[in-house]
Design brief:
25% of the residues lie in helices and 33% in strands. Strands 1-3-4-5-6-2 form a six-stranded mixed beta sheet. Strand 3 and strand 4 form a beta hairpin.
């Protein structure tokens, strides 16, 4: 694993939500890189609007900050877990990438 992708600290969901909720939906942008992990079929299923819907309608179950400063946020999603990486700046939030965790990755959540 790349060192900058390692978890520096876990923070409370409440703390993250207070920060996240201080931004409007217009302040949220999805980078082109965000979809690189998905196949063409998955890209049609998990388009921008669907991702935003999940983020705004689902409470995260875990939040951590990576050594590179990105927020790794885990959401329940269709009987699986969805990991979304955010970069948060004073006036913008960027979704850097997202993906559905595999079974092995899911076992590490909450530990």
């Amino acid at each position: 694993m790349i060192d900058s992708h390692k978890i520096k600290e876990k923070i409370s969901v409440k703390s993250f939500m207070q920060k996240f909720d201080s931004y409007s939906q217009e302040d949220l942008e999805i980078t082109p890189h965000a979809f690189f992990r998905l196949s063409q079929k998955q890209r049609r299923l998990y388009e921008k609007d669907r991702l935003i819907q999940v983020i705004y309608s689902t409470k995260p179950i875990e939040v951590s900050i990576h050594k590179d400063g990105r927020y790794a946020v885990i959401y329940p999603f269709e009987k699986r877990l969805l990991k979304v990486l955010f970069e948060i700046y004073p006036k913008k939030i960027y979704i850097v990438t997202f993906y559905i965790l595999n079974k092995k990755q899911e076992t590490k959540i909450g530990k």
